């Protein structure tokens, strides 16, 4: 009873949430793996401004411990400021490379999220399957309880073994009446409900002869009671199965809550009925949508990364330019010249600081390393193209396998539903025959087991079908549909 109340609370809680879509969004917001992938994507975005920035300017400061005498004064210190500039287009190629690497991280995030959606869906359908198993098992217990009541009515009906009567002949006064031996029994298997339970005994009479009495139906008596006990055994087995389903449900809920990164003791809302999803994708639509799969998009971005890197390596093999200034701090000198013609200009420049513009050019004459870098990028790009083709082939193969499994699950659903309807009709007929005494309990229980087996198999087939649909949606990156 407490398990039934527990499942009822699950159903009530289901009406308060948006079911599977609600859990998918919660998983995307809370799952640590997806959040880590998204943080990696945001980190990669910060590399774009870094790749497009100029190199830091260089400032050199030199101080003379002993001022150096020059014609223009005492040189105390030198300050040099230099800014380097790459070849035209180098920064653009670097930004393109960083942007494509960020795109790779984004597609990696999408792939992680789609994998999470698939895991949530498959676990969800497993929970729905357990819910259906519980309902079907509980329904079969109710059938067995009805059958138990029918067997009890047969067992306790008038003339049955529950009310055994002994018919004795009239004897003379003073005669002793002795019971016949316990081994005497009447026919049991062929007895009908009208004569089940009659007992056959004999009485000694004068002359040593035995007077015949009613026949004993011991097999009828024990048969009616054994039917009730067998039904109770079946009920006990199904109640134990309910306990097993309950344990499996707790474990499945814990796994489901772990995907949502929340308390594993929280209940999970599932619908009352596991409904087969509608598959509406054509082969052409799936093939076209495969190219939007995050794995393929990530490899395509990787190919673009190496293309931009090759362009950047080519630009880096060209000269770099630098522009700067040198500032010299001079102090006045006391020494002069006696030449009157030169005294005036020397005195005017004495101790005056100097500013000198500078230009710097790098000369990349060692070409082997630059050529090797470009060949390396070309090989990596070729590897990405081959990897793209390989993964596309694998995805096409996975789709064919999923489509075949989908069709097989659909056939099973149709088959088990048909078998269940036939078994249900058979069960109604055989219970009437059992009530009339023309069918055995073994036949009834066999059909009842078939009813449960077909319902459980259909539930598993529907869950498997829906999981295959989710697998195809994962391939074509349509996880929330």
Search tags:
481 residues; alpha+beta; 11% strand; elongated
Sum this structure up briefly.
A hairpin with a 5-residue loop joins strand 3 and strand 4. The chain is α+β, with helices and mostly antiparallel strands. It has 11 helices and 6 strands.
Blueprint (SSEs and pairs):
Elements: H1 2-14, H2 19-30, H3 32-45, H4 47-51, E1 58-70, E2 73-85, H5 90-155, E3 202-204, E4 210-212, H6 218-260, H7 283-289, H8 294-316, E5 321-331, H9 340-349, E6 354-361, H10 367-436, H11 441-475
Antiparallel strand pairs: 1-2, 2-5, 3-4, 5-6
CA-CA gap between termini: 37 Å
Number of E strands: 6
Query: Structural class of the helix and strand makeup?
Result: alpha+beta
Q: Helical stretch count?
A: 11
Contiguous runs where pLDDT drops below 50 for at least 5 residues:
1-17, 160-222, 336-340
Order of strands in the sheet with the most strands? Answer: 1-2-5-6
Residue share in β-strands: 5-15%
What share of the residues lie within helices?
A: 55-70%
The mean pLDDT is 81
Helix-strand string:
HHHHEEHEEHHHEHEHH
Give the overall silhouette.
elongated
Biggest sheet, in brief?
4 strands, antiparallel
Could you explain how this protein is built, in words?
The chain has helices at 2-14, 19-30, 32-45, 47-51, 90-155, 218-260, 283-289, 294-316, 340-349, 367-436, 441-475; strands at 58-70, 73-85, 202-204, 210-212, 321-331, 354-361. With 481 residues, the chain is of the alpha+beta class. The protein is elongated, with a radius of gyration of 46 Å. The two termini are 37 Å apart.
